[in-house]
Amino acid sequence: MGEETQNEERITELGTAKNEGGDIFCLSIIGEIEGHGVLDSTRKATKYEHLLPLLFSLEEDEATRGILILLNTLGGDVEAGLALAEVISSIKTPSVSLVLGGGHSIGVPLAVAARRSFIVPSATMTVHPVRTGGLILAVPQSFDYLERMQNRIVRFVVEHSRVEEENFRRMMTATDTLANDIGTLLEGEDAVRCGLIDEVGGLREAIAALRNLIKKNERAPE
Asked: What is the mean pLDDT of the chain?
């Protein structure tokens, strides 16, 4: 099976591809992040159990010099998304994220997990408090769990971006932005202005930044 055929199969099955030189791996995170529960087959989903071993293999693959992460996600399972973000942030392989369309909810930590982040001007990001689906008990333990989960997300985002914690928490609980919800909707330039995303740019700028990170990584001492 030729390299071109393998590439086409990866795009069809997982939404991944390598560039012609084979040194940059393109990983797409789209639709909803599927976690412990299986989503309806009619909905686009990114399965975290597929991406975790894939990220491991990329980290161990000497031919892969950089990872480009394309994001267009509504959010999804909080723990699964945070797990993916933690892995992305911990690998030594240079990574760049590019938000296209949307990087909402748990997509925010995923966007900032890369070493450098970009967003196109037309993309949006929604910052809001942690939600849970299904039945929960109205007891202090349940509210404590949600608060601790929210603190984990806030801590991760603040540590991997330039946004100030006070400002990020204010955006999460804003009541004057979203019509039927609390939180804040950020367009491309707004996300950069508040320090959440590094730079406004498209695919060309993201690839150029990744190339620079690759060069710096190769010059750095072991």
From this structure: 85
Q: Scan for tokens 């950020």, then name that residue.
A: 186
List the one residue out of 11, 109, 10, 118 whose CA is nearest residue 70.
Answer: 118
Q: What is the CA angle 26-30-33, rounded to 5?
A: 115
Beta bridge partners of 24: 66
**138 in helix, strand or coil?**
coil
Predicted local confidence at residue 18, as pLDDT:
75
Instruction: Decide: 77 and 152 in contact? Cβ < 8 Å.
Output: no
Helix ranges restricted to H, the chain: 3-14, 48-60, 78-90, 107-113, 140-159, 165-172, 188-193, 203-219
Judged by average pLDDT, the poorest of 129-133, 136-140, 157-161, 193-197 is 136-140
35-81 pLDDT per residue, tens = 777 777 767 888 888 899 999 999 999 999 999 999 999 888 888 99
In angstroms, the CA 84 to CA 113 distance is: 9
Within 8 A by CB and 6+ apart from 178, the residues are 126, 128, 184, 185
Q: Please name which of 75, 80, 57 lies closest in space to residue 67, comparing C-alpha atoms.
A: 57
Tokens of 89: 């942030």
Entry pTM: 0.85
Catalytic residues: 105, 128
Q: Tokens representing 43?
A: 């909905």
Dihedral sign computed on CA atoms, order 55, 57, 62, 64: negative
